[in-house]
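Tokens for chain A. Residues wanted.
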């Protein structure tokens, strides 16, 4: 039987030298490669995608495996589940929007729909993929966003302004869907003395943390009114003695001509950058004005345009 001591010794590893011809000791990781229990760090049975994720995580630019899903839920401003949303409506909490699973019909969803209609909360019937993108938790086919502000009734605000002897100045936004644009507009409006912002129930930007941040806190100061039908709202304002002025590039009259007296009760109507103001709303406007421009680009950001319009109103009021 062969004696283990009679086996020939393994040749010594080749030494390494630095630039000054001095021997350099090998690292511990290299010395352990010759042991029988040595295992390399990256095993062959390890999945390539997990190795890639580990390397990316070490570099600090880790990317999730499912980039179409949010990294985390939206936190306190989100409600999910049929019962929590129903109880929130019963408690008269201000909800921004409700998403219900398309095709679901039961007593709870019917009650949610009726209460949301009474509270003027928009509801969207969406597929399951949309709900799964909003939250990873058990949503039971229902997700709702809680508004960070309390919407105010327009008729009460208008009546209060008249009772206090103030000249109403309102800003009506038609289909402004960008959150940051809405926040910038709210900031302009608060600085220029607007008493309230009027938005439609559907087709308006969601008021969330980004909108509050962009507004620099103005949304906590200026009232926001959510109306189910802007056409009826414009009619109500005109009947209440408020003059409606629409800002549109299709108008013949220009703002610098000062052809419109805007020192009285006024509502400024602004539209989206893509489609402008709806034709049915333009018909209800008392005046239509365009902002003069000297450059080659024939359009302005809606937040900038609203600031120019509101400044002209403030200038006329300060002058008189």
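Reply:
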């Amino acid at each position: 039987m062969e004696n283990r001591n009679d086996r020939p010794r393994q040749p010594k590893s080749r030494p390494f030298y630095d630039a000054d011809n001095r021997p350099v000791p090998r690292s511990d990781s290299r010395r352990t490669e010759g042991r029988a229990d040595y295992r390399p760090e990256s095993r062959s049975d390890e999945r390539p995608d997990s190795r890639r994720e580990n390397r990316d995580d070490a570099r600090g630019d880790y990317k999730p495996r499912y980039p179409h899903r949010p990294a985390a839920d939206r936190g306190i401003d989100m409600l999910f589940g049929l019962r929590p949303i129903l109880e929130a409506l019963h408690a008269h909490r201000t909800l921004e929007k409700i998403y219900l699973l398309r095709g679901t019909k039961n007593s709870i969803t019917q009650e949610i729909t009726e209460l949301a209609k009474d509270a003027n909360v928009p509801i969207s019937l969406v597929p399951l993929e949309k709900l799964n993108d909003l939250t990873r938790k058990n949503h039971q086919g229902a997700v709702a966003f809680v508004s960070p502000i309390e919407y105010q009734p327009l008729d009460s605000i208008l009546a209060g302004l008249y009772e206090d002897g103030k000249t109403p100045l309102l800003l009506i936004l038609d289909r402004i869907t960008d959150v940051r644009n809405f926040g910038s507009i709210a900031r302009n409006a608060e600085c220029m003395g607007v008493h309230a912002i009027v938005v439609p129930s559907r087709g308006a930007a969601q008021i969330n943390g980004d909108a509050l941040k962009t507004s620099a806190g103005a949304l906590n100061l200026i009232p926001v009114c959510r109306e189910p039908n802007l056409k009826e709202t414009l009619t109500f304002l005109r009947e209440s003695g408020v003059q409606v002025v629409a800002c549109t590039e299709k108008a013949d009259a220009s703002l610098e001509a000062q052809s419109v007296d805007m020192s009285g009760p006024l509502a400024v109507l602004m539209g989206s950058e893509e489609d402008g103001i709806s034709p049915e709303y333009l018909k209800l406007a008392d005046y239509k004005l365009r902002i003069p421009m000297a450059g080659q680009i024939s359009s302005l950001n809606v937040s900038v345009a609203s600031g120019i319009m509101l400044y002209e109103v403030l200038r006329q009021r300060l002058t008189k």
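The longest strand covers residues 95-101. The first helix runs from residue 28 to 31.
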